[in-house]
Amino acid sequence: MARYRGPKTRIARKFGEPIYGPDKVFERKKHAPGMHGVNKRRKTTEYGIQLREKQKAKYTYGVLERQFRRYFSLAVRKKGVTGQVLLQILESRLDNIVYRLGLAPTRDAARQLVSHRHILLNNKICNVPSTLLKPGDVISVRERSKSLEIISSSLSKHNHSKYPWLEWNASEMSGKYLMLPERDMIPENIKEQLIVELYSK
Fold it and tell me: pTM score, two decimals?
């Protein structure tokens, strides 16, 4: 599936926060992109605020409109608060779990690890980044891929206690998806209720 391949700092500046992770350029230029970005004071409508929140969620998780709309439809059909269920679905993507486990420094890098068949899901190769995991699923690294520099480097900088819905086994380089995360466990700064309001119009 296609994904955004343009300049990421520009997107981070658009939303006023480093949605792709630490960004040195963003720290220097936090104003909106463009020649008028420093002094831009445009009044935003209610629809514009809701649309902005949806766009932020899409860019954060690397999902395009068609798939995002499908996730929302799935969230509506499930029991629970629609906005929270939507975020739980996005968090359950295989590429996101690989990123949360610290096997990759970014979601894009995690997506590439999955696509290049370095990741096992329940001891079977899975090369579809958008695969939705269920509690109890086990994610591990292929034996021949355990020495990859990107994986070892990322793991050395990662704090595995950050996400209580995941369990990490360092000796086997594998992680277990324990449960659906509650909203307060998800660190992303996304106002999911605005997305629900946007799609409910």
Answer: 0.84
